[in-house]
Amino acid sequence: MAAIPMATATPTDSMSRVWSMSSLKSSLPSAVTCRLPSPSSRRPVLVSSPSPRLPSFSGLSPVNPLISTGLPGWQSFEDGFKIIDGGGRVYAMRHGRRVPKLNRPPDQRKALLRGLTTQLLKHGRIKTTRARASAMRKFVDKMITLAKDGSLHKRRQALGYIYEKQIVHALFAEVPDRYGERNGGYTRIIRTLPRRGDNAPMAYIELV
Amino acid sequence: MRLISLNVTYGQRQITNGMDLRSSQVLNKPTVEIGGDDLRNFYTLVMVDPDVPSPSNPYLREYLHWLVTDIPATTGTSFGNELVYYENPCPTSGIHRVALILFRQLGRQTVYAPQWRQRFNTREFAENYNLGLPVAAVYFNCQRENGCGGRRTS
Any coiled-coil ranges, and where (chain A) (predicted)? Predict the structure, then answer.
C-alpha cells in the first residue's frame, strides 16, 4: 500500500535507529490514505486526496520523501532534485563552433560589438582589426534589418542595442531609401596593411 | 530690433522648435498667426528645408516650400499674398529640418518670387528685397513614414 522508502529517511528518534510504521503514522498528518473496500460493509470507498494543509508543489523542489507517492528509489538526497541544463556537452576541440570570441569574456564582447556597430553607423566607414570587422557584420546587418521594418517595437529593440539614440533615429529615417531594394549584405570589408604597433591585420569596414 | 510672435499650427498641434513630425502630419498648409501691433506693417513668411535631398549631403541646399508676402501684422497667412504655393515636405532620406522665417517688409508689393524652389538662399533673398534680419522663426524636424516592410524576398 503506502510504500515509504525507509532507507532514505533520517530517523527523528535518536534513541532507536529503527523506524516503525505506527510511530510515523501517529506523528504525521495523514497525507495519502487509501482504504480498501472492506468486504463486509457496503460503505463507499473513501479515497482522500492529499490534505489541503500541505501545499502541493511540483517541479523543481525536491519531492518530500515523507509524503508517500510511490516513488523511485533514491540513493542520496541529491537525486530528489531534477537537473535542468541546456544539454551542454564539453569537448576538448573547437570543431564547428562559429561564434567569434574576440579574446574577451561574453559581457565585454557584447559591449565591444555594440560600440563598433554604433561607430560604424555613425561614421559610415571605420578601420579596425579583421577579426572584429568580420565579427560585427552580423550585428550591423541586424540593425539595418530592424530599421527596414520600421515599427515601434523594432525601433525600441534597436535603441536597446545602439548606444546613441540619435543614430537610431537617423538610421530609421535613412535606411528605407538607401537599402530598400538591397536584400542583405549591407557592409563591405576591405583588408589593409597591418598595424604598426603589433602587426595586427587590419581592415576597413564600410556601409555599402 | 523688435521680435514678433509667430504661431504655426498644423491641425491641432502647435509647432515648437525641434518638434518631430511625419510627412503625413504636414500635408496641408498650417494656420499661421503673427503678432505685432500696427496693421500697416507687412511681413513675409518663408518656409524652407535646408537638408535636401539628404542631411548628410544637402547639395540642393534649401528647398523653398512656401512664400507668403504682404501679411498685415496681427493677422495670418490667409490675409497675405501667396507667391509660392504650399508644397508639403516629403523627405525621402534622413531627418530634415524645416524652418519658417518671418521678415518685416518695408512696404507693400516689394517682394517677388524666385524662379526655382531649390537652391534657395534665404540670406540673399533677404538682402535682395531689403528685408533685414528675421523678426521671428520656428523650425521642426520632418521624416518619412515608417520603413519599407522589413525583410523582403523580392
Answer: none
Interatomic CA distance for residues A137 and B152, integer angstroms: 19
Rounded to an integer, what distance in angstroms lies between the CA atom of residue B91 and that of residue A174? Answer: 10
Over the stretch B77-133, which tens digit does the pLDDT of each residue have? 888 888 888 998 888 888 999 999 999 888 777 788 888 888 888 898 888 888 888
Tell me whether 0.90 is exceeded by the ipTM: no
Domain B6-143 homologous superfamily, CATH: PEBP-like (3.90.280.10)
Residue of A nearest to B143 (CA): A173
Give yes or no for a contact between B81 and B22, defined as CB atoms under 8 angstroms apart. Answer: no
Size of interface A-B (CB pairs under 8 A): 51
**Chain A residue with Cα closest to B92:** A177
Cell numbers linked to B129: 528685397
Judge contact between A67 and A50, C-beta under 8 A.
yes
Domain residue spans in chain A? 106-207
Which residues of chain A make contact with B147, given a CB cutoff of 8 A?
A: 147-151, 154, 172, 175-176
Where are the extended beta strands (E) located within chain A? 33-34, 47-48, 125-129, 187-191, 202-207
Interval A135-188: pLDDT, tens: 999 999 999 999 999 899 999 999 999 999 999 999 999 999 899 889 999 999
pTM: 0.70
Cβ contact A25:A33 at 8 Å: no
Indicate the domain borders of chain B.
6-143
pLDDT of residue A34: 45
Top-tier CATH class for A106-207 = alpha beta
As a whole number, mean pLDDT of residues A6-10 equals 46
pLDDT digits 0-9 by tens, B32-85: 988 887 888 888 999 999 998 888 888 888 899 999 988 888 888 888 888 888
